[in-house]
Protein 1
Amino acid sequence: MSKKALVDDMIERSTVDLTKKQAKAALDALIEAMQWELTHGNEVALPGIGKFKVKMVAPRKARNLQTGEAITVAGHRAAKFAASQTLKLALAG
């Protein structure tokens, strides 16, 4: 689903009258807040959907497929998502 489609869906499902501009601003604010929290190492929980958190990925050995040379991939932070039980049940049903 694209961002435009998500904004349109938000307007359609909303219990209050939202303009397209208001819905887009709300979605942009949510995305910005989530990015800020995750970049500062905080967890973001969305009830009924799941949790976003930052995990450290350890350095690892890899191989350059073109040359066959062994390389080391540096450790880094990565965003991880864990679905809530509610979402898991909704997807299964």
Protein 2
Amino acid sequence: MAENTYSMQELQANTGVRVRTLRHWIRKKLLAKPSGKGRGARYNERHLQRAKVIGFMRSQRKSLREIRSALDRVSDEELPALLPKPRIALTPEGIPVAPRPPVYPAVSWEHVVLAEGLVLMVDASKGQLLRRVADEIYRHYGPQLTG
């Protein structure tokens, strides 16, 4: 199966690290050179993971020397362990866990458009009387406001 590859702009978008900074890290040999040159340069998952780790470590005020030392001690498979844990819970398959249902009372509203920019909101759970009142308001004022 083919590995995902990224352009420099895609690498920037996926890591949040500016292109100029990514190029600096390549010059400092924190990131490997891409395959290809110029506009055809492609970056792989290893580049992506390392750039994420370096970016995170820089946000923690680590120097490039400290980062190089830390990266030299881990394999590519261990790189994700250097990143903070995601804040959202994931299933073992990597799918986000559905959020808990809200604890506040939810209300379903019907919107009756009387005119452009004028909406009557009716709580549908309060029974037929309110719906009849809304219907009367609509029949009485709706034609006057739209006509």
Protein 3
Amino acid sequence: MKGIRAGLAAAALIVVGAPSAPAATQVGETTGAAPCGAQTVFQTNSPIGPYAAPVDGVITSWQYRSPMASQIGRALEFKVARPAGGNSMTIVGESERETPTIPLTTLTFPTRIAVQAGDVIGLYVPGTSAPCTVGPSPGYQAFVIADNVDRQPGDTSIYGVGNQTQVNVGAILEPDCDGDGFGDETQDPSLFGGTCAARGRALTLDADKNKVKRGKKVLLSGSLSETTRAGECATGQTVELQRKRPKQSTFTTFAQVQTDPLGAFSLSKKLKKTFEFRAEVVQSAGCAPALSNSERVKVKKKRR
């Protein structure tokens, strides 16, 4: 009976899920470009879509359209800058220096740069003439400094204006609901706290007997699990064990137990009356509530 009831319990458990997180966003656009001299360049205006982060988050990768074979093998860096008033920009993040080796291909490079809404993407090209911009491109505008200085995060400089200049760069911006500097979709193993949606949980309950003699014990056991990720919402959680008489409509809590490192819990209880049992965990910081299936245990009268 126990195995049958456990299977039914798993099928009947109630799962409280969480709404899906905002999706990753494309920022900027790659395009065929002409060789550039040494420069740092940011796209400040574009008719096709933002080259600036529309919301706070983490840039998890950047893209670059590689040039023809004769121009391949020239290094460049992805940069992120924050407008500082007028033509001034402050560098707030950068990637590793990359050297494209495959011609005429949109290449993607991983990175991890926390950004704020309004931060602008661009490129630093050392004195290797890597293709970085295209023009004339009506409606586009860039801020440019033509030198071979690799400006580091924290640097604030005044930039010149490059009208009708499109920068050959794109990036993927992911949300960062817990503010830990890791992109929620591809980098963060644990979305917890902050503005993260509460993690969905599943709760099961099983009784080792469905009939007992008056005064005998029944073992109530079960497990708590997360529906998407493993971690804080299953281990060391308080589970309320509840019961009601068959003709009653409301369950009441009669005991509390803690889940172990695997999310399991159990309690042995002497019974004098027939009850229906269930388990519940209430919502806590970052963890959604969950309610188990119910288990009925009938108490048989002792024969005289």
Protein 4
Amino acid sequence: MRWQAAAPLAASLLVGACSLGPDFLRPAVDVPGHFDASSATAAAAWPAQGWWANFGSPELDGLIERARVYNNDLNAAVARVIQADAQVRVSGAPLLPSVNGTGSYSYNRTGIGSRQLSSSFGSAGPYFDSRSYSVGLSASYDLDLFGRNRALLAAAKATAVATRFDQETVALSVVSSVASTYFQLLSAQDRLRVAERNLQSAEQILGAYRARLTVGTANLLDVSQQEALVAGQRASLPALRNTIEQNRSALGILVGLPPERLNISGGSLEALPVPVVAPGLPSELLARRPDVAFAEAQLRAENANIRAARAAFYPDITLTASGGLTSAALSALTGPGTLVTQVAASLLQPIFDNGLRTGQLELAKGRYAELLSNYRQSVLQAFTDVEQALTGLHQLTEQERLERIALQVAQRSAAIANAQLQAGTIDIITSLNTQTTLYNDLDLLTQIRLSRFQYLLNLYKALGGGFTVEGGIV
């Protein structure tokens, strides 16, 4: 009869719990129909697992594989995943009863009669010894009628998912940084080779002028001008060597090695192929960006926190039970004792908390509003990243093509000038101009190619680097 009387109350409480919502819905965002910098009919070529292998550099592959294991930022992200998983277990614990074992033992010796005082000083005398023990189990369970504990568990699970997406974001950033730094090192090596080759050429021309000076077909001004050109080209070498070493050190940090222990052969950026990568529909991008997935998972977690904050306004009902054996004699541990059992239910309903629960609810709502803005910003940033990478890659590809044409012209001019210089039919100014133009075009081409590769990396990163929400890195 008591349970029948309580049933309507429990039903009304459960109905109230159902109104704690809202259930999470993915926020609506403005998704463009296509990328302006890409043809709407162009075939998609999304990045895949191990996309960096498309650059055809075994050394780069090895650096990236090591960074994926030993990079400290990435390992810190992995540790955050472990922490989040542990928090899921912590948040899920209240959904099951907690059981504790209890036990106690006491011993008392009491002196009898007038001998009690003297016995306390160590004198002989009669005593009364008493012993007692108890063993048992106690259990408690929060009914969670209003879903607060379930909401906290849902928030912890969503946070754990978010940390995994954050780990993927960090991994993509680390891989891109390794590739970018490696390309900068190769470009610096290319520029150093260009500078050394041009210095050698300038020194040969200087030797020719000095030889002409001895026979009277050149003057000191001609020699001095060529010497100035040689000195300027020689002065550019230390800065390029420094750039190589700085990038080598940066790679050491990325792969978790001191620079002294990192051996890099390098090579030439000119020798690397330019892989093809292209986006599909903008709507597909949202499922391929780990930062967008991270922002959405944070929203899910905070939505659950709002439900938990609302549930805190309702009573907390806890069931407790205990039972065990108690005895006044130690020998009874192996014999019969007194069985003690207790069952109780408690209800806790805060009446006045000086606005604590209201403040916690408003805090959760404000945090949700902040995360909602972050989510929309991450979506907008994703589309912008792709557009900028596509535009930059297209422009740098065209610029490299045009610069190669300019370089061919400069090489022909330099060859003609060198021949005429040997014949003595042109002056030093014309020779210097052709040398400078050729050197500048060679150096500029290496810088343009680096920029093209950097934009290509940006595009790989903007397209998610092979990440998908369903399967992680594919």
